[in-house]
Every structure is written in structure tokens, then in C-alpha cells.
Amino acid sequence: MPFKKLILLSALGVALHAQAQTDRMPGAPVQQVSLTSGTLVVVPAFGEVRHANDEATVTFAVEEQDKDRTAATARVNQKMKQGTDIVRGADPKAQLKTVGYYTYPVYPEVPDGARPLANQAARRVPIGWRVGQTLEVKTRSLEALPKTVASAQKVLNLNGIDYHLSPELAKRLDDERIGATYRNLNERIASIAKAMGRSVNDAVIDTVDFEGSGNYVGEAAPAPRMAMMSARSADAAAMPEPSFEPGETTLQMRLVGKVKFR
Q: How far apart are CA 79 and CA 25, in angstroms?
């Protein structure tokens, strides 16, 4: 092989080897792939708003047990009427609703291991009756709620409290949530266009799919329920006020946008 041709081949091999090493070096510049006209990009977006709860649903209950069904029923009716009058007097704007009333017999307990015959079970006689009623109170007077509850607890049991957003506030926050999510979509489109080396003016939103994931992400999440049973005080007049914290509700939304680059 001629000497000049040998030198040329060697130089070519060295150049190819150096190029290969450069391609494998970390941090080496990556050649950007150019986008063709009409490229479709799927962009997810997310929005969130928070607000303090402005409404509460309080559940009161009363239950009595007696050998005489009439006596148990009379005490329940009397206490519920007293409790209802107390709530209405303390919070005139509250919405009251009866959500349950029950009466059922109480039978003697069967000793462990004992299995009564069918005819014996049919002849079982109740030893008493249990009667109860439940009252639901919806209010927006949250500052006065501890005092209202303390007054009602003189005759009623407190079964639970659910703090949440009123329908009007929830609607207003839903508008804000949609706006926040759509703004996030535009922000992400601008970031994606910059990363692709394209102008955001070349991006055209083709489709906007709210809740595009197919399920609700962070549906107005219900506020934690505070289940608490009240203990009857020996001195009802000295009933201390309970401590409540309304907390806040977070509303979230996800959307998926399809964007075409011209």
C-alpha cells in the first residue's frame, strides 16, 4: 500500500474515533429534533383554590330506654322539643331538619353458647323499648356555634359536625378553580414551546378536556367529620362551651389540552 494512502486512512480513523468519543461524552450538546408543521402536543394542567369553610351541619340526637314504650317515647318527644326550641332561639337563621326517628324492642341477652329453639325464639318477650330521634341543623353562624351547641347539649347529644362550603361560595370558588387551571395550561404551553425552540405564538389550542383523567382529582374534598358524643353533665346549667375549628376546604381540578404547532 502506498505510503500516502496509508497516512490518509490513519487520519480518517483517528477522526472517526474522536467523533465517537465526543458523542459519548456526558454533557455533549444534543441535536434538537425539528418539529414539523401541525405537530400535536398533549399538555396536562392543574389548578387549586382554598377557602375557609363558611357553613356547618350539626347532628343532635336523643335516645331513651324504658320498659314502657309510651314512657320512653314521651321523654324523647319532650327532650327533642326542648332542644329544638333552644337551637331556634340561639340561632334563628339555622335550618332544622328531622332525619331519623326509631322505636324498637329490647330483648334479654342470650348467654354465650346457648342456642334457643325456634319455638322458644318465637315466644321471646321484650324487656324494654328503645326510642330515639335525630335532628340536623345547618348553620352559617359559626362564631356563635359553640354557644348554641353548649345550650342544646343540656338536653340533646351531639353526634357530629361537618364543616363545608356553602353552595354560593362553592360556585364562586369553582369559577376561580377553572380560571386557575386554564392559566396553568397556558403557562405550561409557553414552557413547552420554549423547550422545543418554538414561539408560543405558533401554538394553537385544539382541544381542552376538563377532568381529562377520567375521574375527579381532588373533588371538593369533604372536610373531616368530627364525631363526638356529649356526656350529660350533672349540672346542666354549667355546661362549658365546646371548642370548634371550622378549617378550610381545598378544591382541585385537572384538565388536558391538545395543542398544535403551526
A: 83
Residue 229 falls within a domain, yes or no? no
Could you give phi then psi for residue 205, rounded to 5 degrees?
Answer: -75, 120
Question: pTM score, two decimals?
Answer: 0.67
Which tens digits make up the pLDDT trace of 141-194? 999 999 999 999 999 999 999 999 999 999 999 999 999 999 999 999 999 888
Residue 72 belongs to what domain range?
A: 55-107+124-164
Pick the more confident residue, 136 or 113.
Answer: 136
Closest of 87, 60, 64, 58 to residue 77, by C-alpha = 64
Exposure string for 194-205, b = 16+ CB within 10 A, e = fewer: eebebeeeebee
Identify the band that residue 112 occupies on the pLDDT scale cut at 50, 70 and 90.
Answer: low
Instruction: Say if residue 133 is in the same domain as residue 196.
Output: no
Residue 78 sits in a domain whose CATH number is 3.30.70.2970
CATH code, 177: 3.30.110
pLDDT tens, position by position, 64-109: 999 999 999 999 999 999 999 999 999 999 999 999 999 999 998 8
Residue 65 sits in the same domain as residue 43: no
